[in-house]
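Progress report, Aim 2. The chain analyzed during this reporting quarter is listed below.
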Amino acid sequence: MDAHERITRNTAEVVTEAEIETLADDPDGKRAYVGYEPSGVLHIGHMLTANKLIDLQEVGFEVTVLLADVHAYLNDKGSFAEIRGTAERMRDQFIAYGLDESNTQFVLGSDFQLDEDYTLDLHALELETTLARAERAMAEIKSGDSVKVSQAVYPLMQALDIPYLGVDLAVGGMEQRKVHMLARDVLPSIDREPPTSLHTPLIADLGTGEGKMSSSTGVTISMEDTRAAIEEKVNGAYCPPTADPDPTADGVARENPVLQIFEYHVFPRFETVVVERPKEYGGDLAYDAYDPLEADLEDGALHPADAKEALAEYLDRLVEPGREQLAD
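Predicted structure tokens for the chain:
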């Protein structure tokens, strides 16, 4: 697998393809970043972008993880003392999950976002941005009907973080797309380069296959989960025998979250995936890539219950080091 394929695998979008190709031609020493609010224990959403960071490290990128304490404060996630304590715990969880500690820089937002130059640049962006434009970009953090001033400033800070961190590539889930497009619009107004960005897919709700899996609603997987909890959640997951559930019955668009987790979480981290089955049911199945597993589910060679049992096993292996770290 060449650098371009490794950088772009399991992505929903890159902006732009030409810029990504340039980075892939000489990735050594390039810098990529993801920003996370320090708001709790790592869950499957964090893990998805962390998998992409691991991909980038393997082709030569240096990685910055922004533990965005100021953003969390603006989003009413607690006092600075509480948020910074959470940030320290999250740092340890990312290392336990598999990020290369020697090649990962963890930065608190307050390390640079309270400096005079940053503040003045932020005010300059505020002068260039209408409230309506900021509201479109902050859709993912907005709660309720009322918009707070802090929430309108939030996406402008996300845009400004990119040049201040000195990164070549901004990584995020598809929910970050509006922020990255805002950054491409407004950063040239302060003579800053617009960012190259890479967006990972969104995993559907585990129980229904609808929308986005969320730690605040529905069922998700986190590093706090025991093996028994993972098994219970996965066994209850929506998993029709297809990667493309038919929405014609009720008109609701759905995905197969079990297959999504295999594709975006398990296969990027394991060279071979073994589905254990009794001999009377055909014996074990071994896969060295995602597509054959999907095909076997489609044609009935792999039963959804067996797929779920294997998924619980591999998710537990991914979560176990972080779970042990949390218990220390």
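The longest strand covers residues 31-36. Residues 206 and 219 are 6 Å apart (CA to CA). These observations will guide the mutagenesis work planned for the next reporting period.
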